[in-house]
Amino acid sequence: PPRLEVRNLYRQYGNRTVVDDVSLSIEPGQVTCLLGPSGCGKSTTLRMIAGVDMQDRGEIYVDGKLICDTVYRVPPERRKIGLMFQDFALFPHMSVADNVAFGLKDSAPKKRLRVEELMEKVGLSWAIDQAPHHLSGGEQQRVALARALAPRPRIMLMDEPFSGLDNRLRDDIRDETLALLKDEDTAVLLVTHEPEEALRMADEIALMRDGRIVQQGSPYNIYNAP
Ligand code: ADP
Ligand code: ADP
């Protein structure tokens, strides 16, 4: 089965339909970008998949298992879904290691091993016992990625995760992030309003407008369609 499958999702706010019959499926190891202008319903779609907002209609499956429909609902913390948002900052009063271990429920030595493994993968072993404010913006972003990956999520939801970074850093961090996500075997749904970001990151692009997915395919197919 697909890693993530969303079927016929609807969401209204008041009498406005902001997500209108959205269906998506993402295979293991794949990155799908939800691309569209501000206000078209991308974040609302992501929030429903994360379980912090509730759809009016439709179903969500992870690895073929129903996690949410209009009557049944697995709580967010049990969905095996990781989150990375633009303003999802590190906890400033915790060390880097405690930040990365935050979502882990293992014994202290097992937590430490996982934290060390991830800090090595993001190239920040030296920073493990630092306070977050000693790190640069790009380094903090890498720690946030390590924190999101620590509990081994099946799916990573990313909402404009790179928009707080300088242009100079962004391409490198995008590439490193992709490599690490593939290495950890996590499927990704990434929201962006920048076509350039979708082209760089996506295996599959879903173009969204006014709550609907209007076109879906590989970057090549999306940009070369008649
Ligand atoms: P995007 O992520 O594509 O910018 P959003 O999903 O954030 O779009 O928003 C889609 C539309 O729904 C926007 O018009 C937004 O103002 C509206 N909206 C989002 N969240 C709420 C909410 N909690 N209550 C009412 N309207 C909302
Ligand atoms: P972004 O698109 O930058 O991710 P959103 O537009 O989704 O941010 O808004 C962030 C928060 O504000 C969300 O919790 C959302 O529910 C709320 N929100 C957005 N638009 C509205 C709105 N029109 N009315 C009420 N709440 C809203």
TrEMBL record:
A Gene Ontology molecular function term of the record: ABC-type ferric iron transporter activity
UniProt KW keywords: ATP-binding, Cell membrane, Ion transport, Iron, Iron transport, Membrane, Nucleotide-binding, Transport
Keyword hit for Transport: yes
Keyword Iron: yes
Origin: domain of life: Bacteria
Record-level GO cellular component terms: ATP-binding cassette (ABC) transporter complex
Biological process annotations from GO: quaternary ammonium group transport
Domain ABC transporter: 4-226
Protein name: Iron(III) transport system ATP-binding protein
